[in-house]
Amino acid sequence: MKTGVFENHLRIKQLSVLLIASSLIVSCGSSKNVATKKNTGTKTIAKTENLRKLDSKFDGKVSRSINDILKDAEKYIGTPYKFGGNTSSGFDCSGFTVKVFEENDFQLPRRSSDQAEAGNKIDIKDAKPGDLLFFATSGGSRVSHVGIVHDIGNDGEVKFIHASTSKGVIISSLNEKYWNKAYLHAQRVL
Description:
Largest sheet: 6 strands, antiparallel
Low-confidence stretches: 15-27, 29-53
Mean pLDDT: 80
Distance between the termini: 60 Å
């Protein structure tokens, strides 16, 4: 009789630890619909075509250190998504960015919301490869996903590499409706 009570207590304790741990880690985005506008107090962040017809200031030149970061990120394409993951067996979004930057001797905070405070906020028109992009994939204005700018096309299309919940590490575009609506801001950490 006492063994059953002990086992139940142990299961409850394990479940409590799991719930606490998962609440501390910010999950990467899902494929749920996102609100069409974001309200951040008194300011509404405009979305839609303004990101698609971007007049980028990027000159096409990438430093060797940024090129190394992008090559390291690319080697993980196809790696599956894993909540809380930060190894080649599986990544969540912020675990992916931490791993890639760590391999290049640069430390980022573990959570995407903390990464969003690192470095300097930049206008998307000033974005270049190696910069971080932040998204609110659950609606609202709370950072819940991060990716690394991979390249910017001649037409200003911004592509980024990230660990998506549905497809693992992939390259996506801000032209995609889902990411365009969820986009919050860009951050330069290098």
